[in-house]
Amino acid sequence: MLIRKRPMTTEPPPNERPGTVKKVERAAPRVGFVSLGCPKALVDSERILTRLRSEGYEVSPDYDRADVVVVNTCGFLDSAKEESLEAIGEAIAENGQVIVTGCLGVEEARIREEHPGVLAVTGPHQYEQVVEAVHDAVPPRHDPYVDLVPAEGLRLTPRHYAYLKISEGCNNRCSFCIIPGLRGDLASRPANHVLHEAERLVNAGVKELLVISQDTSAYGLDIKYAESKWHDRQVRARFLDLCQELGSLGAWVRLHYVYPYPHVDEVIPLMAEGKILPYMDIPFQHASPKVLKAMRRPAHQEKTLDRIRSWRQTCPELALRSTFIVGFPGETNEDFEMLLDWLREARLNRVGCFKYEPVDGAKANDLPGAVDEDVKEERWHRFMALQQEVSRDVLAEKVGRSIEVIIDEVDEEGALGRSKWDAPEIDGSVFLNGDTGVKAGEIVRAKVLHADEYDLWAER
Ligand code: SF4
Description:
Helices cover 30% and strands 21% of the residues. By secondary structure, it is an alpha/beta fold. The strands form 6 sheets. It has a 5-stranded parallel sheet with strand order 2-1-3-4-5, with helices on both faces. Helix 1 (39-54) crosses helix 4 (127-137) and helix 11 (333-346) packs parallel to helix 12. The longest helix is centred in the C-terminal third of the chain and has 24 residues, at 373-396. It starts with 29 loop residues before the first strand and ends with a strand. Iron/sulfur cluster binds at residues 170, 172-174, 177, 179-180, 214-215, 298.
């Protein structure tokens, strides 16, 4: 078994190579690496180091010059475990900033009991987690002259807005959906990872952050709302805390895929104060309790109309977007009429509606009471016609008001933008006909002159 108990260097730092001039300022953050254990662990160390070097980290030959030290441990024999614990202790005493990985990492409690000061503990082969822990301790430095990829990453959206994914997967098991089977249970990103990314995006010129996930309001549940260090403070991985922090970055923050769990009420005051956009995309899917139950929807037991009323009392500007399914197995005329009544009452700003279709592997396929295609079609048309009326009325109330518009496109005929109540791609537009004096990404004030059932027309 190969055991090394000293910082492992693959090469001297560039500013100490013979013939190079010693720089006064550090070119990049430095990682010290102690690699213990067998050749498999050594290969893990090489992979981690390769990744860190490719991100611009330098490898420190000693503890003093390292910004953080990674100890790759061995957990094979008791003697190897002891040696690993000793190595962790030595790194803490010499440097203080220590991340533990490798086989002993599976005994996190033991490591933390003996060395409570370690920054993070990960197990064997958890390359991503080790690298993320290094990022948390010492963020990589972006060098615009050398890096092939911009600091904010490569994006397919226009420069002024960006999607920000806060978690992957979903703990719910809606009967019509196969996403949890494809993507697994909820896996939230640590709050500081999300915030670092959001900050990089805003620094790169993004004016609007679109928060997405499968279940945004469940954020942090799987990681027990763990705190992580963001600038000089600890931030909890909680829906409210994340919204507060994102709201401090100076960009529009728009929330998508929010389920109306009770704690969602807590973010409405942030919307009323203008910290985040007064907008929520909540896929209600239906209004009949019987259908919602058959759909196995999360939070279906909440009295959503009462909730909506109270949200609007706190934040009268709140815009709600939603999606619905008509023709779900077992949906009766009565259920459908209940949905229409609910829609009239709820006065949602934007609504999408789908005719139910079976998806391979979904539990709903086994439900009795399939609805005929022509009935689905008729219900869909009635639903959409009603929502058009609602939407026309809601938008008519904006006429005469001065509103903020984020500009998406400008051509020789004028500018096209969106209000705070409209997400890109899925909602309506604000047309500034003949206005060519603005640029994409600018946020301007304009007076609404006209509205139809989808869009607004305004002038500055
Ligand atoms: S539809 Fe239901 S199960 Fe599917 S991703 Fe959304 S909340 Fe999760």
